[in-house]
Amino acid sequence: MADAVVTKPRWPYWLIAVLALVWNAFGCLDFTMTAMRSPEWLASLPPEVIDWLDSAPTWSLFTWALGVGGGFVGSLALLDRSRWAVPAFAVSLCGLAGNQVWQATSNMPGGVTSPGNLALNGAIWAVALALLWYAAKKWRQGFLH
User: Fold this and answer.
1) pTM of the full predicted structure?
2) Alpha carbons 50 and 52: distance in angstroms, whole number
3) At 9, is the secondary structure helix, strand, or coil?
4) 2 Cβ partners below 8 Å, 6+ apart?
5) Are 89 and 133 spatial neighbours (Cβ–Cβ below 8 Å)?
């Protein structure tokens, strides 16, 4: 049996992987600075949002960390051309879903269905789903090992 042909990705692959890393690094930064209650980071938030964040159950921090951490690890795995990108992005989606449950069942200031929240959450879901789809596609095509 002949060895499988390993395909080398072209420049769009690398561009997507780098953009994914930047996107997910920002998510990790936001999580870290919010969890550490950085005064500079939180300065633009109204007091009711700070109170809402302070009332967050511990499990919601765990799901948030899974969401952003899984996306970051998945992005690094894409850059390494590792097949582990697929499960990492799947973990990210599970974390995102868990965090959305908390947002939907809590008294989120402005409400989950406010135009700003809908737009942000829609963008996050779109990118997370697209990255999982892209990683799975590249794995099937033999780009990831």
Assistant:
1) 0.91
2) 5
3) coil
4) none
5) no
